[in-house]
Amino acid sequence: MSGIAQTILTTVKVSLALTVAGAFMVALNALLSTIATVVFGNVIAEVLSIISVCLPFNALAVFGSIGSAIIAIGAFMVAVKIYTLTTALLKV
Amino acid sequence: MNVKKIFWIVLTIFALGVGFSLDANALSEPDKLKLNQTIVPAYGLVLENDDCPVQDFTTSWFNYMQRPTAGYYSFAWNVSNNFFTRYRNWAPNQDTTIVSHPYSGSYPSKVRVFSKKRDIQDYKYRIGIRNDDIELALIRLSIYNPPNPALDYPMQASHKLGQEGYWRCDNTNCSQGDWLFDTASDGYAVFDIEYKKHNGKCILNVSNDSAVRSPYLTAKHNQSKINVYMLNIDPIKDYSTDFSHSFTDTLQPTSFYAPQFTITTEAGTREVTFESAVDSVFGTLGEFPELQSGLKIVLDVRDRKTGKTIYKNNVDRCIDWLASTYTVAGVNAVSTYPCNNVGLSYLHSTAKFVVPEEHSKIAVKACYLMDKDKVDLLPPRGVFRLGCRYASFELDTTTDSTTFVGRDHNESYTGSEYYDAKALDEPPDTGIFSKIADVFMFNFLNPFAPLFSLFSSGQHCVDVPIIANMLGSPHSRYCSWFSSSVVSVLTPVFGLSGMMLVFGFFVRWLGGSHVNFFWTEDDFYNGGRS
Fold first, then answer.
1. Which residues of A touch B437 (CB under 8 A)?
2. Is the model's pLDDT at B134 over the cut of 80?
3. Which residue among A72, B12, B183, B442 is the one 20 to 30 A from B56 at the CA level?
4. Which pLDDT belongs to residue B359?
5. How close, in Å, is residue A85 to chain B by CA atoms?
6. How many angstroms separate the CA atoms of B138 and B65, rounded?
């Protein structure tokens, strides 16, 4: 395969991986929130709010950012997996 | 068990737990009213007309005071020295060379241009202006062209502030003192301002013309089309620093107004009547007709046990404002302005709904809402807040009454207390289905929203109605023990640290280093590298 074709292929793969990973991240975020909403209503948010007023930081924001980090890691792993799979498929 | 499996299980549990908290607040309030989060626009004195550009006469500070017994809102602010060094000329025994009348004068408008342009026509405030030098002027600006000509009356005796309403300020403080100016028969010095082009120059003309105020002002207003803007510069702060000693009887910044209402049933039926009239203090809005037209009551009636909605009105219409009966000089009168109680001091609203048979105890929540486009006319945010009232009732269909069974308390809003009339055309929330549909909506910034929230100021006080209800607490609003400045610093510190910790574990895991959660005795000797 020529260099240009390889570059194009790699670009497409990376784009695909990023897109799917991003969508995965958003969907996971929203899905978890929806499940939490359906199951617990607004109680969790209120509990975190109560915690926040007792702590010198915003617990909702801190735990939310940590959750984002974990979800981002998951998205990254999905992206890597997609990249690996597509590479393996192309080799076949 | 494989360490990796343990790690994944822990990670999944933690992710689920954290995920529950993500946006739970936003997503779990399907019935929350669509409130516009626009902060109340700043207040100040800005004038414009067709010939002259917008001019801002506002400067460093602004203060809001209200005397509840008076029914009039008073504003005080400091204006530029350019303006008020000349303003001194108003005072008796001062140099009056540039004024033709002891209490009037024309002043060049050497002030900066204000960018925002608004159109507020009806305006009636009492304004106190402090000069940085020595002088004080308390003036009542009266640009007055109400839609109802009958409103164009001199200030009622019942609205008088009395002598204690006059305050004299110098550089450092304000105290009850002499009135600098001749007062009108109703006890007020009334000054009219006019901003117009004169001999090719835009000037601000201030005059004391209370004797012929009504016709003169109306005519003048029509001619010059003066628009007045108020610019709100953190009124609460100024309230506490500059005038707290002088206005101890004013409304506290935490005060808010929630609808007072009654619930009655028709004997033998399940038809319920909700009826509300504003309280006497809030009724002072009668002096501000445009406020009334923007004021709504939003009613939310639910089954007390299940929370199922029984009745709910939208904010795009008022709840059948009654052809209100009110009293004018001891005579009952009826408003001819349903849904727009122009000129009334008391708003009266009603709504009827039928409670299905499966419901016996109902929870009623009624909230005041104000059109955000009308907030220019409101007193500053924080001093005059709108809120909700909750109460629970048990229906008794055998009589024409209901029994109060639940808590009856007020709640102020945590967010904005204004609604966006323009946004009402949006389709209503369809509940859980719309939330599920949100899962498939992609917004690039969404996944990182929690990250950005680290740097937002956050809420100093939070509402926890569900927990308060569970615990039977009379209070559902709690405020932080720590100042917002501390929270705003520590939140990103802890948030970023936590994220770095998570990423650190991940990177170490990627690098082939096993995370050993179960240390054995040997691990203590080899550093956990078993």
1. none
2. no
3. B183
4. 77
5. 18
6. 13
